[in-house]
Amino acid sequence: MSEVLEPTKNEEALIAVMDQNPVQPMPTESPMHHLKLGARSQGSNVPTVYAGELGLKGHLVIRGDADNSDFRKGVEVALGLGLTDTLQSAESDSLSISWLAPDEWLVICPLDEAFAVETALRNSLKGHYSVVNVSGGQTVVRLTGANAVNVLKKSSPYDFHETHFPVGKVVTTLFGKTQAVIRRKDKETWDLVIRRSFADYAWRWLEDAASEYGFQVADNLA
Amino acid sequence: MFYIYCPYCKEHREEEEFHAKGQAHIERPADPDSCTDKEWGEYLYFRKNPRGLHHEMWVHAVGCRKFFNVTRDTQTYEIKEVYKMGERPTITAQNQTAAKQA
Amino acid sequence: MATQKNRLKSGGRIDRNKPLTFFYNGQPYQGFQGDTLASALIANGVDVIGRSFKYGRPRGIMSAGADEPNAIMQLGATEATQIPNVRATQQELYQGLHCRSTSGWPSVDFDAMGLIGQFFGRMLPPGFYYKTFMFPESFWELYEKFIRKAAGFGRSPRENDPDIYDHMNQHTEVLVVGAGPAGLSAALSAARAGARVILADENAEFGGSLLSSRELIDGDPAHLWVKKAVEELAQNDNVLLLPRSTVNGYHDHNFVTIHERLADHISDKAPEGKARQRMHRVRAKWVVLATGAHERPLVFANNDIPGCMLASAVSTYIRQYGVIPGNNLVLMTSNDYAYRTAFDWQDTGRKVIAIVDSRQNPTGQYVEEAKNRGIKVMTGSAVIQAEGGKRVNGAMIAPISADGDRVTGDGTVLSCDTIASSGGWSPVVHLSCHTGSRPVWRGDIHGFVPGETVQQQLIAGAVSGSYSLSECLKEGLDIGLLAATNAGHATDSLNVTVPKVEELVEGERMAMFYVPHSKPTSRAPKQFVDYQNDVTAAGIELATREGFESIEHVKRYTAMGFGTDQGKMGNINGMAITAKSLNKTIPETGTTVFRPNYTPVTFGAIAGRHCRDLFDPKRYTAMHEWHVENGAKFEDVGQWKRPWYYPKPGETMQDALNRECRATRESVGILDASTLGKIDIQGKDAREFISRVYTNAWAKLAVGKCRYGLMCGEDGMVFDDGVTSCLGENHFLMTTTSGGAARVLEWLELYHQTEWPELEVYMTSVTDHWATMSIAGPNSRKLLAELTDDIDLDKDNFKFMDWRQGTVAGVPARVFRISFTGELSFEINVPAHYGMHVWKKLFEHGAKYNLTPYGTETMHVLRAEKGFIIAGQDTDGSVHPYDLGMSWCVSENKPFSFIGKRGMKREDCVKENRKQLVGLKPKDPSKVIPEGSQAVDNPNQPIPMTMLGHVTSSYYSACLGHGIAMGMIRNGHNRMGDTVYYPQADGSVIEAEICSPIFLDPKGERQNV
After folding, report:
1. Global pTM?
2. In CATH, what number does C164-290+427-502 get?
3. What domain range is A191 assigned to?
4. Which of C166, C617, C805 sits opposite A7 (nearest CB)?
5. What's the complex ipTM?
């Protein structure tokens, strides 16, 4: 799968597309690797909040004109999922797509499929668009449980009430003093996309906010 | 703490998600090199500070990262209108005064 | 232990089966579950709870709520749990509570201050602060210690608070403030309409006045109606009930802060793992203020002797807490409502000496009832003076004129120990004022009510001037429905019936604030208006005599309302007295307004969890753990934690730097450069866009090449720099400074979205995606060669300022041959999840080259040896590229007038004699000029000296064996070889020669090998 492009030899190359998966598997560390979440002790309370890092994923940022039907079609052909409307997300078995801005979406897929997805997108898109692999730069924390919503209310000024934040909605908002892309997966489950360098802070914040409700690290949330 | 409607996210968000970017509708001169120092100085530094309606630019920094305009009453802090880049305000000090006189 | 001599045998909402021991000024006392600290102190017969600020007069509990000016306590059993400024009237009693009085020195019972109060009071006349500050400074210093010691309202703890405080963000359609009859009703109807409702009240129990009310609702005692209402609300999922929660601030766009005390009523420290207090940050569609009203005391002589209280407070203590503050009551009133206090008192079996009514012919049902009860009612009269020392022992009563302005006959003294007074009620307009709304005077109720507001605010009950219970209930239900309707709920079909109330009909009230005395105000015993700041009626009159006419000025001059109680009790009386002495009406005089917070808020609640470890995010790179394990000291760069240097055992910082610098120049060093901002730029106009935002030329940069760029503002001043690489014809990777990444991206978006939307370009931050490690030094190529087999590292095929894609340590990588050290150098970028793997592989192979990790400090030294600037250190927003000697980085010939081009041509930017960046070599090779030092031509000139510019960067260079510096010097580029002097604070002077900032390898040979 690895195909090393030699840019100087390829004068035609408009965009430097790069398969970022090694030929042989190499050791990886997720943004929360150092926190050793699996080994963290559980509180004595009966847990009503669970959270865990989903592990490394492929993250691609797609930019393009939502009013351009070719662009819309191209994305749908490549992903099997169409572009979502304002603050909406969609998911299939292996992919999710989240609206980030009127011309920006986040696609999350298995890490080793990132290049294939990017290639599929590039093959079916034309004109002015961009696809950027940001897999190394962010991570997904899944937060669930009866009191998960209270953890969010302590962390973000956004309105998480289900009349305002139904399942499938996705917003980029504050999380403590950093930010997160927060998507409601089901009534009590939320996926938080956190930037790598802020992951330590975000996790500590979350753990602190959850502690009064009984908190347990969960590593099998995916 | 304002509650600002983002015209791109199409809902209200807390002020903490935005950065204020100063007076709106300040266009970069088309040909800077032919500007006099005075003209360039006006563009660079001189800003209105009205008591009452003011048109300001904001960016939804922790959000969609889009810039947009806000018409705000600097006395009451009431936001009268929010509109996208490239659009003109429908509520202005002039037409408010005109409406009052009418 | 003292007995609860004032505790009634029965009644009240306290639990007599749960006695609680508490400590006041070190002495144990007993109260019951359900008491406040104030009710427990009254039960124990504690009369004096503090001494006054200026005069040292003994003071007692005046009220039963937030308006209390006197009973301000210092709470806390241990040093760490000290809380100042707690109102005893609002603090619930718990087992083991420790408190101390805060005003009163040396002790509340010792009269020392009282004796010298006469003298002291003269020292502190109205306007004291202003007058004192106008005197020589020494005056203030003389008194300050004494004043603070004698007057203080508590102190902060000297140890870390062990408790947790946090924040909760809330959104609601209807926020109801206050859970009295109006607030409960509003919450009920809004919730029934289906609205999301928050109901907050500062007290432990919902109900407000209904908890001590005499009225029946639907035939039952009012508290039973409260119980049913609360039960209904509690069952509704859309309703959040917040007792013990003070709505403290009403801010813009219906943003409201609520201070909830979760554990202050339980013990000295909150239960393990639980928050003590929580700040709710509420965004409400509609706010219903049902904040009620505060009773006003009447202003008469010696009205501060313990035993003088608000009438309603006396009723509250009797009915809600089962305590009675004395034996013999004189009640003075200007209205019917206060009569109930006499009835409540009489019902306990203790004696009502008289009701003194300022009205000539009161005729309401209350008056009838009093007469039926056999209570002596003295009409057309007033208590003009209280008698007593540490406790009231009599009330001097005199007839007064119908307008209440004059005493018309001789006074007689009635023996009593309690004087309750009521001058009517003041709606609690505080929150409405927070929004900028000015209260308006309503003559019919003799009070200010909330005025017009731009907020989505409604008012119900006593705050709107509706004082009868039936009005409050009806208004609450109506306003609750209106709020729900406004929030978008259909309410037409809702059937809301107003409960039936049995209440007495009140007669007309009299406008009465200040009680006349037989002597002129200035000669009569003190008539207190603001108890906390010892502001008297005479003081206010003095202020107006001295020419202060605006109420805002009178307030500041007298310090009225400046205390921690913010004048809740005294301000309206003060305004009325001001109006009278100015011969104006109250509306003409106007009112002062109130600011947040309504009552004091702890710093803990304001900070929430944004403290200690969670105060600010700490950003880490993918290799951070390695740095920690290898002993790095860290430096904050923005929010990033970057390795600063890596000391070995026994090394000083300078030792470590010298070693790191030498190892890099002699063999190979490695820097974690992941924090550099990185922006992926794609689109057919990417090159054009970059040309417009950088000062230099980009038209010819080929794919596979990198270039350094300077970024300026429209004023022509440098604000960021970095290397941008051409990844593809339509694809660039821009790097920014570590601290400037977010700002630069927003800057680029600003120009793209607002000025040049026609350019087809998309920018995406990839800062966190790439782990970046820079290997530098003569052996860097050899090291890299061991880890890659698909990148041709030959010096002619992979030149300086080229980049290549390939595999490093088995991981797909982009390698940039760029240098910030002047050495042969490669910057390796891999997806961050492989960062640690590649970093460790480099060390595995680097051992034989003595691969040495270096931090930001060595990076600074190495780059300074080469004269490379750091934007933000060597620039400060007033420096353009020419000032930096970087004209090579400005392309005047670009077709588009790039950002900064016009700015740097302004008159001031092109004038002679600007400060310019130069190198500075200390004459004494051992000296390092402190950064920030100012240069002068003649160090012996008189101060202030003519300064030429400051040192921006300065280090000891181990490789060169002397100090090196960069700095601004006026006209510096034309002064090469001149000597300048840097006088230091210790009197020494460092001499330096102006030179090129490039101290090492001026031809750049080392990086081109």
Report:
1. 0.94
2. 3.50.50.60
3. 47-217
4. C805
5. 0.98
